[in-house]
Amino acid sequence: MTLSEVDTPALIVELDTLEHNIRRLPASLAQGRVRVRPHAKSHKCPEIAHRQIAAGAVGVCCQKVSEAEAMVDGGITDVFVSNEIVGARKLQVLAKLATRARMSVCVDDARNVSDLATAAERAGSTLTVFVEIDVGSKRCGVPPGPAVVELARQIKRSPHLRFGGLQAYHGPAQHMRGVAQRRAASAAAAESARQTRMLLQDDGIECAVITGGGTGTFGFDAGSGVYDEIQAGSYVFMDADYARNEWPGDGPEFQQSLFVWTTVMSRPERSLGSVDAGIKSLSNDSGPPLIYERPDIEYVRGADEHGVLRFKLEERAPRVGEKLMLVPGHCDPTVNLHDWMVGVRKGIVEAVWPVAARGAIH
């Protein structure tokens, strides 16, 4: 099947570009000193996770237990839930997954540590636990300092928990537009993590891994000499929001590989049209999509099943029935709206992969 035969709306992955991005990240990281642990919340697809691991990644990150379960069911054997997990049912599933794969998780609360230990004991498993420190995200994590040492001591006292190190992720820094802004935010996060590691060492606690970083700051994070793992996720796909960042040198090291394929379904006015990809096909939380290689067309708003376009050059406006590629504003939630992604190479469909963790929000 050719791309032109694929019905719309459809989630399209350009395979040559995807593979370039997967190879590029480990090749960029501090001469191999820093490991790659890509975030699977971006693609939710074990097929892509296996390709990342084949290119050198040590495992993947997830944000939810059900997402991790989809990865383990798909054959991924090293999964870090880089989030706090609370609730007896979720902890039970997490602890059982640890009998099938190496499972890690974050904490920032003493009671949560106790609950993790109980769940792991009942399952007969061992969980690796990272203490999350707040390095700027202002959503989870304890302040860098003595509270981290107390949690690490508590983790080490449990025979069913293993202290893995520190989670130090600065989410807002990924989307700071200026290069200097992102560099400064990364440096501040790395310094907080470095000082916290020293506190742990002074208490006789080994901090083997500091993990964090993302697509917007990975180069600065890896070059800090502090981070041992980088958790970039969006790099495999990129999106319109990351395209708004300033990048060092000639631009980002990663290329756009994810698109929503859509059809022009109406031309009510000469300067307006509608496509069949609305907010049920792509996320608008980071702004509307771009029309790939068509700066003369603007996606002005989305409804449930419609995307309204404005044509800046009426003489070049597409006809009803023509198809366009949309660049999502935010790749992660866009992927979560689709059951399948269609892999295309040089205009020919080569693969159709299930989005196995779609809707995995528990």
How would you summarize the topology of this molecule?
Layout: E1 10-14, H1 15-28, E2 35-36, H2 46-54, E3 60-62, H3 65-73, E4 78-84, H4 88-97, E5 102-107, H5 110-123, E6 127-132, H6 146-157, E7 161-168, H7 179-202, E8 209-212, H8 218-223, E9 229-230, H9 240-243, E10 258-269, E11 272-275, E12 290-291, E13 297-302, E14 307-311, E15 323-327, H10 331-335, E16 340-345, E17 348-354
Parallel strand pairs: 1-16, 2-9, 3-4, 4-5, 5-6, 6-7, 7-8, 8-9
Antiparallel strand pairs: 1-10, 10-11, 10-15, 11-14, 12-15, 13-14, 16-17
- For the record, what CATH class of the largest domain applies? Alpha Beta
Indicate the percent of residues in helices: 25-40%
Q: How many distinct beta strands?
A: 17
Q: Tell me, what's the shape?
A: globular
CATH homologous superfamily descriptor of the largest domain? Alanine racemase
The N- and C-terminal alpha carbons lie at a distance of 36 Å
Number of domains: 2
* CATH fold field value of the largest domain: TIM Barrel
Largest sheet: 9 strands, mixed
Which whole number gives the mean pLDDT? 97
* Total number of helices: 10
Nearest-angstrom radius of gyration? 22 Å
Secondary structure category: alpha/beta
What is the N-to-C succession of helices and strands? EHEHEHEHEHEHEHEHEHEEEEEEHEE
